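Q: Could you fold this chain for me?
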Amino acid sequence: KNVSMLMPQPFAGRHNGYLRTHLNSGKIRILDLVRPVVGLHKDRTVFPINLGVTKVSGVGSDSVFMGAMHAATAPPNVIRVWCMPTGGVVSVDDTFSESFGKTYKDVAGRPFQSLTRDPDVILKLLDRAAAARESDFLEGKIQQKGIFVLHNYMDPVEVDVLVGMGGSESQRMLCFDLRLAHSQGMLMVADARGRLLYMNSEMRHILGISDDTNVSKLDMNSLMPPPFSLLHGKWMKEAGTKVPKQSCRSGATVVMLGANKAPLPIRPKIMTREVEDSEQHLVQVEMSSWERGMDERQLVLTLDTHGNIIATNKALTSLFGFRVEELVGRSVACIVDVLAQLRDELESVLARMAEKIASKPGYSWRVGVHPPVDKPLDQLTLMEVLVMQRSTQAAIMMLELKEAAQEDQLPEIKLHIYKADMLNCIIEVDQFGLITRPSLSPLDPSGYMFGCNVRSMQRRPLKHFLQLPGKGPDSLLQNDKVKGAMKKGTGTGSKVGPMKVLPGIHADGSPMSLNVLAVTLNGKHIVAKCSFERLEKGDVERFRGTLRSGDVAGAKSGRRMRGSSMAGYAFGEEDAKALALAVGGTLQGDVGTEQASAAALKPVAKKGVKFAGSLEDDISSASISSGGQSQDEDALLEEEEEEVPLQALEASSEDEEEEDDASKAC
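A: Sure. Below is the predicted structure, expressed as structure tokens.
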């Protein structure tokens, strides 16, 4: 067949004429040169090639020619467009679609100037190219900076244009080399149902999605971990005006899954626009880190033994409404409501908190956080008290001690204060109700919510932490408003259960009100997402009670002590000795309160106790050495202690004797 079948029009119709002209005149135009041209694919698409033609043998009509061709590739960071001298687009390379969101079919045959925001500038550039010599193209004289190419999904993209020559002198083609003036970053576009319409190369690279993968077969849900992969579609349809502070719409660090299902911390910026009566969501993505994600959700304070703040993390001002840099040098009691009421006993309270986490790793307290107030509460005016109460926000507080670099130094005291309305607890359980994965994301430490080490939740029954509405975990999927067979949970084939408000069980024995939303995985495992339904601020009596409950010597009897009996409590010498025993140290001779606080903190780090509840504990699987007791004994004692809150929920608040009997029985 005629070789012209490999060429698009108008080159196919003119090729026989080129051959006759050469045979009759002997004039050489393209022989023995390599020229950029375009070829015609079997599917009728045009693609760029580099072509070299030479004469093999023969004379006149008996001449035999050989052509060698290979696919043309643009230089790095260059997007190439092939046009006719009049500006009509003949072909584009693969990077054009990724850079501007338009396929070859969208632009083939269209004037190049119609693809830009500056058509007049492009027309002048075409006039310069028509009048230029071949040497002008080789020297790079035909160029224009600051051209804006229209993007299919976002604002026009600024490029610099360099025009080169292809084809032959008699039948020119123009090669427009476009260089992006600025990096676009990671970008993807989804429709109103979450189906992906577009994803650029940088986004593909981060997620590990190959270039030949058709993103139109993917959706946003496939890039999310459970339970969000099953919930996100509904949220997109029913997006409210109030944006949760930890959601992707707020720009907070969230988790996205790569092609290998590995979690990636990212910060999305979402813009929505109307296109032909439908919505499109443009998602610009910035890589984040787990540390940055936690800084968006919690305040971390480094304290001395007196409770003074000596350092902070990089928490945002918007977290609690004040600049964290202003806290350095002030007492922690100036921002935490329960500590403000115990300001005079702060050193002993910190020592008692250290004792608590030594016996119960990962223990947390429900508190309130307000802007710094340096004056004691009894010196505040009524208006100042009202303003402070109004600005107090619910939080979860956890103490962490890190081993000092040198033996003669005290362990580093860190206070983690996680904002309560940003805390999610995501737990996976099996069909028997046993927890298989207590925390599915480093950004959502489940232990904070329940006041325990997240690893201690492994293989524990979910009912120890959450009062289920029925006998098993399937009851989380039942819709109480539906009668008969539709109430069988997983038997209905439903993957998402209704929102339920259930009592949660904190380690301090008092109930919590939680929003619980459950989804099924593979018809067997269930993932439950818990958040606070009612935000609770600090209760000083409850806080005092947690510092007195349990055996101070570390025997873990599980005995409950009432917070109301803590009135007038002061940390004395006997308490200091008991605290030292509890954390594995000894005190010699008589010591005062301040010395006791410092001395009691020292042996904590030396003993090898790694205080759980830190980010490292929530992620790692390292074992915990808890002093004199084995890990199995600790787990058994902790399991016995966890039964106390269950009894507390069932006991009548009016019958205290009955509640005490239940506690002793446990």
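A (continued): The first strand starts at residue 34 and ends at 40.
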